[in-house]
Design brief:
Blueprint lengths: L3 E3 L2 E3 L6 E7 L6 H14 L3 E6 L2 H4 L17 H7 L4 H14 L2 E6 L2 H9 L5 E3 L7 H9 L4 E4 L5 H13 L4 E6 L14 H9 L3 E5 L5 H8 L4 E5 L17 H19 L4 H6 L2 H7 L2 E4 L14 E4 L10 H4 L22
Parallel strand pairs: 3-4, 3-10, 4-5, 6-7, 7-8, 8-9, 9-10
Antiparallel strand pairs: 1-2, 11-12
Helix pairs in contact: 1-4, 1-10, 9-10
Length: 348
């Protein structure tokens, strides 16, 4: 698999999954809340914090309808995007905050003007949202920047993905493909994590999941199937105002996701043989397994029969596999049922 680098983080087959905390519009246009998301994502262990850079005049019209009308605060979708805007200096402030924390700052560009803002901020990689998959002019500018491109495929047909991959390969561009379903929240049966290994085998580049289920299960399952990146929407509380709260995870869940992806990496990267592991458990094996013992006390000279034998702990005595070597043998001493039978108790 071809590796890519985002900032100083290597993303590929032999690396832990790269976790992106997606804020989206959960900041509700508040710069202060946006800063709070950076702190919380860092504290939860995410590799990156991602916003969305919207400029209403550059990307929307009054013809755009609400995907989900959640309040009367905004008269139309255009006004909503306007409320989500930050100035260049505000975006710079957010990026500097993330840089100070040591968490990668990302933001999706939804227009050429948004690209220019983010390009001037020198962000580490580009994210193409599912709705921008066919925004070729925007993608062309991203390709020319020579930075990695992360592409979501939430509303794309397979032939469109193939065409985009061919284009990016022709341009010798570093990129990653995200399986995504643009359903908020996404039902488990529609997540499509079966595409993770399919995409890995087909495209041989880092593959991710952009998740909208509102829990961490699909992300952990995807990592187990080989996903190299996870993008999950985050919120402070699922009851918060906004269109994406129900399809987001909170920061306790994000922390658990980060812990889980690190554990899964250890599971998958630690190649052991069964015998190697068992050799390290010899003492435990002796303690937990059983050996031959007498069912009742027996005297010297008595002959051992199958019915006089039982198995008892620990496994430090005569193993069950030697039972036929014991049956029919004469005892050369008195033997208690409260201890294991030993070879030196038997006339050989």
């Amino acid at each position: 698999m071809k590796e890519i680098k985002i900032d100083n983080r290597v993303i590929g087959k032999n690396e832990p999954a790269f976790v992106i905390a997606e804020v989206g519009q959960a900041h509700e246009g508040s710069l202060a809340i946006a800063h709070s998301f950076i702190d919380s994502a860092f504290e939860s262990g995410a590799d990156a914090i991602k916003f969305q850079t919207h400029i209403a005049k550059a990307e929307s019209t009054l013809d755009e309808k609400f995907r989900k009308r959640f309040s009367t605060q905004d008269a139309n979708r255009y006004e909503y995007w306007k409320r989500m805007e930050f100035t260049f200096n505000q975006w710079k402030e957010l990026k500097e905050h993330a840089d100070d924390k040591g968490i990668v700052f990302l933001s999706s560009a939804f227009s050429l003007e948004a690209f220019d803002i983010l390009n001037e901020l020198n962000i580490a990689a580009w994210k193409i949202g599912s709705g921008e998959f066919n925004s070729n002019l925007l993608i062309e500018k991203m390709v020319k920047s020579k930075k990695p491109i992360l592409i979501s495929t939430g509303m794309s047909y397979m032939n469109e993905i193939d065409e985009k991959v061919k284009y990016l390969n022709d341009k010798k561009c570093d990129y990653a493909i995200f399986q995504c379903t643009s359903q908020y929240p996404t039902k488990p049966e529609n997540v499509g994590i079966n595409f993770i290994p399919d995409f890995i085998n087909k495209y041989n580049v880092p593959i991710g999941l952009s998740d909208h289920t509102g829990n961490i299960f699909s992300s952990l399952a995807s990592i187990s199937l080989g996903a190299n990146l996870i993008e999950a929407h985050v919120t402070f509380n699922k009851k918060m105002f906004g269109p994406d709260a129900s399809s987001s995870i909170n920061f306790d869940q994000l922390k658990l996701l980060v812990e889980g992806k690190d554990e899964i990496f250890k599971f998958l990267s630690s190649k052991k043989s069964k015998d190697e592991i068992t050799n390290k458990l010899i003492d435990m094996r002796s303690l937990f397994t059983k050996s031959l013992a007498l069912k009742n006390d027996m005297k010297i000279g008595q002959v051992i029969s199958r019915s006089s034998l039982v198995l008892k702990k620990p496994g430090t005595g005569i193993p069950i596999k030697n039972i036929n070597d014991v049956i029919g043998r004469e005892l050369i001493k008195d033997v208690s049922a409260n201890r294991l039978l030993n070879w030196n108790d038997i006339k050989l």
